[in-house]
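Q: Got a minute? One more chain.
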Amino acid sequence: MNSILIVEDDEDMIDVISYALKNGGFTFDKAMAISEMWDKLSKNNFDLILLDIGLPDGSGIDALKMMKNKDIQIPVIILTARRTDIDKVLGLEMGADDYVTKPFNQYELVARIKAVLRRTGLDKTPAKIFKFNGKTVNLDSYSAVDENGNVIEFTNKEFELLKLFLSNPLKVFTREEILDKIWGLDFFGEFRTVDVHVSKIREKLGESVIKTVRGVGYKLGDFLNEDN
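A: Always. Here it is, folded:
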């Protein structure tokens, strides 16, 4: 399992990133300043750094320069809220491996992280590919295609729900468990929300992809797992 260091001073953004990393199967730690980043790097091993440009004690670009001078060989993805290309170009020139502009989609962030880890040979998690009736779901790239290679579109919650079943193929989930895991404890919606999302997934992948366990809830149907 890959370990990520989040260097970001906005607590709300840290929560968003942490949620994405947790769902992406990563372990992570956080630093809210460059000085704290150096402290974390001196004590722990990380496979990748998510580095914000604007930090309270300096610029992420300056931190990149220092990493280069210290010959610290850890992949870096820049996080920037600025719409201009200046920070992105400077960051890449200073040795960053990629950049993500805020606000970002959590699946895009995870996909970019995994792409960098694969490119640098540091990816410790195998791709997870599942096939069903000619359709293919790839948890590693957060994508799905039909038998003709056409993209199957999922909403964020639909994909999270599908991933929950794929990651726990033998478990039967109650509607309450699903609401807690996918929508969170603060969600005050109805169980009907789960039923609607299961129905949408069935429409896209086939009726038997998710089985109804009468009186209990739902479980994964007959997917074929192909670990690559």
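A: The CA atoms of residues 111 and 141 lie 5 Å apart.
Q: Perfect, thanks.
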